[in-house]
Amino acid sequence: MFAPFLTPAYLPFAIAFVVMIGIGLIEAIGLGLGHLDLDGELGVDANGGVLDWLGLGGELPILIWLTSLLGCFTLAGIAIQQTATALTGAPLHWGLASGGAFVAGALLNTLAANGLARVMPGFETTVISTDDLLRQRGTILEGTARRGSPARAKVVDRHGQAHFVMVEPHDDADALRSGDTALLVRREGKLFFALPEGNTLLQSI
Questions:
Q1: Domain ranges of the chain
Q2: Rounded Cα–Cα distance for residues 120 and 104 (Å)
């Protein structure tokens, strides 16, 4: 029954299906990779234009949007190959079928993504800008952060969502070691600067 889906004609759609399942599992176990600040990261207006047409204007989590796109691509590809087989007795070449499936899948995903954005309004409340991580405490995960040598830290925002950022000490003399907690006080691009928990400036916070 599933043998045709392992042939070269169906291979792109089988791969897309496997990737879709993998991304769905990542989103389901909550690794915090699903939300992107499209305004801040891409420097475009996410409330209109091409992002709105693609279904990203409503701040739908990017992994859910991508999962939907892969699903639409897979369904469109299988439909194209099944139709071609019924009409000609053989499926199309995988390249030709993939091109048609990409166009059809993108159009179908526009409807699907906009529909998902309407029925999943809760996601909009968890999309934050990068600056919202300032004045939040983070925990150094590995290594030692020094000036000029950042380390990876985990920060949990006000919605309970985990973010992973690179951190350096705010002061030249400080060092942030694995397991230390620090307050993010400023950022330059994607790099954050933090005061260690024991800093005297934080004792009254």
A1: 3-126, 130-202
A2: 24
